[in-house]
Amino acid sequence: MKKIEKVLGFIAIIIILAAAKFWLKTDLLFFRLLAGSGFGYALARAYTGFAGSVNRAYRTGSTKLMRTLMFMFFITAVLMTAFLFGKDPASYNLWIKPINIGLMLGGFLFGFGMSISVCCASGVLTDLPQALPRAFTTLVFFMFGVFIGFPIQNTASWVQDSWFSSYIGYRTMGGVFLPDLFQGDGFEGYLGGLIALGALCLLFTILSH
Fold it and tell me: With contact defined as beta carbons under 8 Å apart, do 80 and 87 qualify?
């Protein structure tokens, strides 16, 4: 990257933040802009994408990114456990989604599409500056998928009805919330859920090695 590009980048950031401070209607929106900018910068600098971990392993033989993501998942789970422990999970409207053929079909479609385009949703945003035609094409079809898929998601029984459920009284949708499965651990199931998730992350890390 040329020095002038770095200077122009910093100038653009300053202008955007200054304009947002005056134009955005609430402080919450400004805070979200700051958080999103920081997250985007971190992703771009680290060249981190979720689909990218699998693509990099297949194309280069390196599983370092895959192992890094497993570590990130576990650390995030630890932080969320500390945040949720002792509180009513229902008050946070957690995304506990059904497990069914819709999930499996969506996973395959997403996996094939992101393998072909070499990026996922976060990867599209990090790839736009350096691989514009491919990333922009992916972004367009990503939006098509959202607008076509959401009506089906909201109405189809094979997407709404779950094969498995860990329901314990405060959710209406099916799916598995790991702490539900370990209610006898003395920590409202969070310790058992955290250990189970840690074991899965460790297993994938060992397999990636």
Answer: no
